[in-house]
Amino acid sequence: MNAQDSMTLPEVVETVGDRAWSSVQAKLATVDWSFATRGPAPAIEAIHPYPAKFIGDIPRALLKVLPLPAGTVVFDPFAGSGTTLVEAQRQGIHSLGVDLNPIACLIARVKTSPMPIMLCETARRICAVARENTAPRRWEIPNVNHWFKQDVQVAVAALLHEINELPFGHPHDALCLALSSILVRISNQESDTRYAAVEKSVAREDVFVNFMNAVVRLHSALQSRHWSLSTARVIEANTLTLDPTDLQESVGLVITSPPYPNAYEYWLYHKYRMWWLGFDPLAVKAQEIGARAHFFKRAHHTENNFWQQMRSTFSLIDKVLVRDGYACFLIGRSKIHGRIVDNADIVQAVAAEYGFGPAARFDRVISSNRKSFNLSHANIKTETMLVLERHTA
């Protein structure tokens, strides 16, 4: 780490002199990064459950302060449910997101796509046909009888059959998302944040009622977007192995919140959603950064794995980010076998290997009502906002 890396914010501002960035730093310093007085989130953010969601206030604040070079896009290499992409759209900025998780990509695509034509009418027609379809079907879903009652399984399968008969595209995505959003509610799983089977009074008809309610809520949320839909492209891929040419865009600003060691189980949160929709959650688990299972096997992961994962991430960013671009990371600490690891320090050190230095660094308090799998074990109470800029020669 060089001398500038260890400077406080006022010292860095003083050293850059009349560079425009000094005013940007000052603006960043005025932001309450904990957003204790947050306004209501747009309805589009509530269309589907998602763990440890990146709150829109963060990318919104960064997009208002950081300069975006002409002809470039905002890039989120760990896009999750697409919060950065939505906030870019709200400000009329083109964006690009990548995520490994197919449910995350589905949510992000629907959030940022035009309203499907005749969404509610199509859903009602599908429901009417599916209600009459009680034929037994075969599906390869492990332990499905433990988590879903038999009549519920048949109803879900009937809905999926009708949805999959539609031409692939926006209506298909939106209806898949509506069905995905209710799968925990109609299952035996206690809740989205508690992975335990309990007895629920859920019957076959509840599947169709909940599905239609979800479609109506989704329709309302999509209608409530009062902004123009600038281009937001979603790529389902592993960022760590992505070919830079696949992005097909010049990136002017990176805003992301990467998964980190032993924190959240995104694959587990969406496991049965993935199986029902025809995806492979075990393949996602095998590649997911930070999945807890990686840290409790014989040859378990350590913080060294995260170092290498961030090197792969910055290798990509280094190739696609324009000279005057900036990279912003929101990241928390990890508890690995009883030891606290500051992941922001790792990101900052790896960034330095690729010629990036810290322009600003702030800690924020995570709201106590933010819940997800393993939150109590991870004991994550604060996060670090790290804004990085390329060192000049």
What does this structure look like?
This protein has helices at residues 9-15, 21-29, 57-65, 83-90, 102-112, 119-131, 144-147, 150-164, 170-182, 204-223, 266-269, 271-276, 281-287, 303-320, 343-353, 375-378, and strands spanning 73-76, 95-99, 189-191, 194-197, 232-236, 251-256, 321-336, 339-342, 356-365, 382-390. With 393 residues, the protein is of the alpha/beta class. The protein has 2 domains: 4-113 and 229-390, 3-Layer(aba) Sandwich (Rossmann fold), CATH 3.40.50.150; 119-223, no CATH class. Helix 4 (83-90) links the parallel strand 1 (73-76) and strand 2 (95-99). Residues 1-19 and 370-377 have low confidence and may be disordered.
- Report how far the terminal alpha carbons are from each other: 16 Å
Under the CATH scheme, which architecture of the largest domain would be assigned? 3-Layer(aba) Sandwich
The CATH topology of the largest domain is given as Rossmann fold
Low-confidence stretches: 1-19, 370-377
β-strand number: 10
**Helical content (DSSP H or I, runs of 4+):** 40-55%
The main sheet comes to: 8 strands, mixed
Please provide the ordered H/E string of secondary-structure elements: HHHEHEHHHHHEEHEEHHHHEEHEHE
Number of helices: 16
Number of domains: 2
Proportion of beta-strand residues: 15-25%
What would you give as the CATH superfamily of the largest domain?
Answer: Vaccinia Virus protein VP39
What best-fitting shape do the alpha-carbon axes yield? globular
Average pLDDT, to the nearest integer? 87
